[in-house]
Amino acid sequence: MRNAIISVYRKDGIVEFARELVALDWRIISSDGTARVLREAGVEVTDVADISGFPPMLGHRVVTLVPQIHGGLLATEAQREELDQLGFPWIDLACVDLYPLKEEVRRQGATRESVIEKTDIGGLALIRSAAKGRRIVIVDPEDREMVVQWLKEGESDGDVSRDMLAARAEAIAADYCLESARYLSEGAIDGVIGDEIRFCEYGENAWQTPANLFTCGTGDSLALDCFKFVEGGAPSFNNWCDVDRLLQTITHIAAAYETNGMSAPFIAVGVKHGNSCGAATADNVIEALRRMIIGDPLALFGGLVMTNFPIGEEEAVYLRRWNMTGAGKRLLDGVFAPSFSDEAKKELKRKRGKCRLLENPALASLGSDSLDSGLRFRYVRGGFLRQPNYTYVLDLNDSDIECVGTPLFSAALQDILLAWAVGSTSNSNTVTLAKDGAVIGNGTGRQDRVGAAELAVTLAERSGHDIHGAVAYSDSFFPFSDGPSVLIKAGVKAILASKGSVNDEAIRDVCRKGGVTLYLIPDQKGRGFFGH
Predict the structure, then answer these.
(1) Domain finish residue from 370, 403, 424
(2) CA distance 43 to 37
(3) pLDDT for 477-514, tens place per residue?
(4) Do 319 and 451 fall within a single domain?
(5) Disulfide: which of 145, 290, 368, 505 matches 258 by Cβ 3.0-4.6 Å?
(6) Domain residues for 499?
(7) Same domain for 366 and 398?
(8) Is the overall model pTM greater than 0.70, yes or no?
(9) Burial of 78 per CB tally in 10 Å (0-12, 13-18, 19+)
(10) Kindly report the CA angle at 382 between 376 and 384, in degrees rounded to 5?
(11) Which domain CATH number covers 332?
């Protein structure tokens, strides 16, 4: 008979797991709440106290922290005789989960004392002893069924499976300890624990291999690990970066519309090298795709697209064929949507899997609560930078927004919101032009702001857009009047920018003289730098 110690905070499914072990002739060792639940379900349990000779002590802070248990987990094969002489059982398996520390830290009203009480020690010790002893250690409930099946099949690849289970357990323990360190240091200690979920076809450049995607298990329905791979070759490092940027842009569009009391429309966004080359909203899906495509058709070729609506055959044909000459098809490197029909998959498919299709139903219900609120980390030589995420949402009713000239109404305000959402999630410096529900020019990544304005105008004109009546967004203030002058000369009717320049009054004057409406928001509050 083999021995398993089971000690879990969350009891869901634990009775069924224990019954499976008993059916395989295992003895169950447990204590306190877990033992009670198992006994009430008719599972025979040996209490930890019967093995150790000690009842729970110090208000149940010490239950399993005894040599009889940890010796049984840590002993090597060469130490079995010593273990027998001590009268300690050899323990083959530990099934453990931990007190909900993270949930308590984030709970409104949590105190230092309540966090300490939810800081697990015995469970962590069991996990680490079992991992070091290379026992079968289960921390993730999703692994229980797999382990039972593995036991029934004779434990093939035993060392490999045990090592992987131990690695997963150690990672969970490390993340748990990191949470405690983060809390006790008030954020002065931080880090990231990830679990590899995807192998990237190549890195940012082909020679940067291997490259991998890791998940931090946040439970976010829009996290990259929640995207189901349905067609194409393995995404590259760049492809995943583009998915992340597309998520930033499409969620900011949805959040801006909802915050400003506008109905959430159908949204389509196209990117190339991380920056939007087309973005649009409309009341029907084909019009949203059309407006997105015309934004910058040249740049979209070889780009990636994300929508908040399913892609069926009609939508796929439109993406690939509309506005293409002859039998030509638009080449896309990826399309990401709530779902794809079988016909859409066939239409979008490219040779050698060059068009990657990923689906996530959560894309269909975007709103103000869809923004990524997790901290952002960036590697720098010797360490990392950390900052809050990009969660600012433009509210046109904000009393801090100054309006110079005639206020805009209805559709023009939607264009302002669209230009803001795209520009504030593009690489700074950025000036973005929008008109009739579509981005028509996105001048990104310039070292000077007048250059960003000139680039936005140039891109719009290259794609054949009439700029007259368009709106413009600048992701920070204009240091001189030359930037607004470029936009006014091109025919824009409104500009949204931040204020904080010594030349703010000159900016106001040039807009007044040009008959252009100017919206200004304090730079400290609404600056939209992204991807520095």
Answers:
(1) 370
(2) 9
(3) 999 999 999 999 999 999 999 999 999 999 999 999 99
(4) no
(5) 368
(6) 394-526
(7) no
(8) yes
(9) exposed
(10) 10
(11) 3.40.140.20
